[in-house]
Structure prediction request, 283 residues.
Amino acid sequence: MDLNQWLQVVHLADESFVEKILYRLVKKHVSGTTMSSALEKARELNGKKIHASITFLSSGVSSKPKAKYITSTYQELIRQVARRGLTASVQVPLVQLGLGQDDGAAEENLRDIISTGNKHGIFIWAELPEGAGFGMKGFESFRGFGIALPAESVPGFMKEHKEARPVKAIFQGDDGREQRTSDAGAIERAAGKANGMVLLSTPKDVARRLLSGTKTRKSVIFEVRLGDDRKVMKNMMKKGAKVSVYLPFGKDWHAYAMNNVPEGYMRFLAGKFLDEKEEMSGI
Prediction:
């Protein structure tokens, strides 16, 4: 049975059954649908001396109440990470908090999350989407948080914001694509200015250059997505690099799978299912 025939069969099946099939295909790339599953995976990684970065997968925010619910979820996640004594940070996409719809509310929600993180000693990554106009004004005095943003936006962000702040560079798209060596050079220069640098899904050629430099290898944390090739992570650790694993959890895993699962057919199926769900819900 080819892919098109399989899809025709799927189309006739019960939606919940289809979703279960798709989840089985992508589940190695998400830590589960519940908070407890992510916390357990973080505990396993910590047992191997590996740091974790946990995020909650949630669909786009359409109302203030939902943004508040997501804020409360992150606050509870922070409390649970601290309660279990895990070595883990929490990454918060600001679009989940209302950025782009009500920036004032998004900033207020972020302050609440950072305050909870400070109280419990858990580091927070505030994730900015590409082209976001979010400013640091009003956050200069906050401690225990850094900015996560697309790798191509890092040099500009570092130039605009003079205050040293931990930065996470997120490489997006196909991990196997070739990158210009200038990308690695820009990250190296940014790493020297930032108060800590994490690289999420670093392309092979960029990682190779950064790993070859003793200073960069020791100052940068290489973060891999759950389900990525373990050999890559092991090779980084053998070379003395600091390594972290990105742990997404939640029931809204479809968009994440479509954008981050490396296998093309999985991305296609997740995208098709997400489109159908949105069509049926009238979004």
User: Anything to note?
Assistant: Confidence is low (pLDDT under 50) at residues 174-179, 279-283. The beta strands are 51-56, 88-93, 124-127, 145-150, 167-170, 197-200, 220-225, 242-249.
